[in-house]
UniProtKB/TrEMBL annotation:
Keywords: Oxidoreductase. Residues 51-494 form the Aldehyde dehydrogenase domain. Pfam families: Aldedh. One of its GO terms (molecular function) is oxidoreductase activity, acting on the aldehyde or oxo group of donors, NAD or NADP as acceptor. InterPro entries: Ald_DH/histidinol_DH, Ald_DH_C, Ald_DH_N, Aldehyde_DH_dom, Aldehyde_DH_Superfamily. This is Aldehyde dehydrogenase. The keyword rRNA processing does not apply. The keyword Oxidoreductase applies. Coiled coil: none annotated.
Amino acid sequence: MLSYGSYVDGQDRPGTRWVYTVRASAMLRDFFGSVRTKRGLEQGRIAPEDAPQDVIGRCAVADEHEVGAALQSAARAAAEWSAAPLATRLRLVEVFHDLVREKYDEIVDLMIAEGHPSALARWEASGILANTAPETREFLASQMEHRVGTAQRELTVRRVADGVVCLNPPQNATVANVLLGVWALAAGNALVVRAPRSAPLGVMHILRELIAPALEAVGAPAAALSVLCSDAPSTMRTWLESPLVADVMYFGGSRQGIEFGARCVAAGKKPVLELAGNDICVVWHDADLDLAAEALTEAFYGSGQICMVPNVAVVHPAVADELLEKLAARAATIRPGFPEEPGTLLSPVLRPDLFKAVLDQALEGGAHLVCGGRRLDVTGAQDEVGGLFLEPTVVRVDGLKGARDLEAVRHETFFPLLPVVVPEQQEARGLLEAVVEFVNTNEYGLRNSLWTGDQQVIDRFLAGVRGGGLLKVNDSHIGFLPVLPTHGGTGLTGGPGGEANYPILRTSHLQGVSVARGVRPADAVFADLTRKASA
């Protein structure tokens, strides 16, 4: 069994209270028995040495003193680490990237144990590699510093670390998202991470076994990284109240996130918000419909509980029927299963009652059920009472006007539910403009994508769509690519000032520098004015 205390100031601090992690497949086989075992261990009724093999690890619960100590040590480390050369800090990312490659299988296995379907765990790990690839590092290095030499001065525009950055990852996909923190470290910040009590083990293990060794390898202060499993409300309150904290990276729902961002600003902190998605994928009449349908099935991966999957499709009326037929056929092949099983793509959904409410509202509002809509057990059999999985569901919504009256279209639902909006047929140019406007009026702005074979349509789409941190054309909606951002967006996705999120840029600030030699101050102020006056 893995065992991690709080990691503060480069030291492991064992706790008196622990959170135990039970293998997700064991929870699916025997939910109540697994919960009894977990509670027995956490309440001291079962000794750790008597834990069954399906208990894969434990993490100490940090108290308020350890949360405060982490900020103190981080502040000391930030002063030292921010002075390190940019090349050294980027070397940290390179070492980390190499460690991810070396421990790829270990990372994937741990994510599977925590409940990520195996195919999606590999996808998440590939995203970590793309996010830290050589091309990405080279591009971001170019954004961190620019120098211009003149006869008497060296002029520099550079980005400087903000200081102590605190990171609060989401309840789902904790490992992949928390590893964005390596870029906050590369900016020269110290990083304090709260491992969520619902899923702390992967966060603790990956940060301790990947980022901590990478910091050591480049000579960074060990205190530049702290990781604690702690209570969310009290920890966030401490972060907001502490004068030592500069930035908070927050993952969560849009309503709570926007409110938290306002509290950050009021407390003098910079919020870096990663909130809900509700992405749109547009399919035009000349698209490769087989590939477009394949991309749209990504909406069901992880049961739609991934913020960057397509949540709404807008399909040209000339091909809507054919596309829906292909999509329904593909959706039928996506089945539940244990996370270890190679073909599994669906994850359990905790609130299937909410799914039914959203689906019913769509159908009552005029949408038509194309496929799906049932609760399933882990074998794929229908179970409307106790089924933890939801069948991939497609509904057709006719007309752009009024489509956003439906909850399934207007907001991210976090279910395997894809509304396909079919616009009214009209003159071709007007239809494209109407679709672009529909995309632009989305309240969210994580990713948007387009399928078409017409370069003019591509050009008009890219010229017209202003929202979103990432636009993709004729490509996987969720696939990761080097250089391009993996996170961030506009509107309710990133809050005020939201944009594509490169944490090395978002957790640093611009500073101009002039180093002069042989310059008289009076000449620097008045020489140009004197020359202009005498001209």
